[in-house]
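Input.
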Amino acid sequence: MHDPIRNIKESLLSDLNERMSTECTCTLKETATRPVPGDGSACATILLIGEAPGKNEDLQGVPFVGAAGKFLDEMLASIGLDRKDIYITNIVKYRPPDNRDPLPQEIEDCAEWLHEQIGIIDPLLIVTLGRHAMNHFFPDKKITEAHGNAYRREFPAGRSQVFYTLYHPAAALYNGGMRDTLKQDFLRIPKVLEKLRSGA
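Output.
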């Protein structure tokens, strides 16, 4: 069925990703194969934000396609969702050398791209994956204490956004306790959405 809002959002997001792949000043462009803007629905209710592309993502241009991505797909399925239902991106759009953590300046250089994506998609819920994504929005929080909790943040122009914080799937892959915690935290996402939809 023809959906004009979906068409507009898809066009805006596509134009943004194409424009920012040229305009973004992040120095990671010099060593990365390509930008990894994001993947999924421009009309997503849930926007997932990770840290940075890894080797597989850098080669394919799609976020979360390695082992961590497979684990993420399993968790999405556990709450009845598929990648086509959500949008997923990272705080930086280029792979850091040797998969090191992104530097503050690199995050800052990619911030406009990320925040414009958020504005176009206008998700009901943003799910942060790992401490770097969480700290971009909540610099003072510790992931060990914040995971599995929802927080609201006010943005300029009166925009209010709810975030739900999770461990990063890559960090949980080889840590049994963290893996179980992440799976349990993920299962609470539908309840968070239900509260948001009811205006709670």
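The beta strands are 39-40, 46-50, 87-90, 125-129, 150-154, 160-166.
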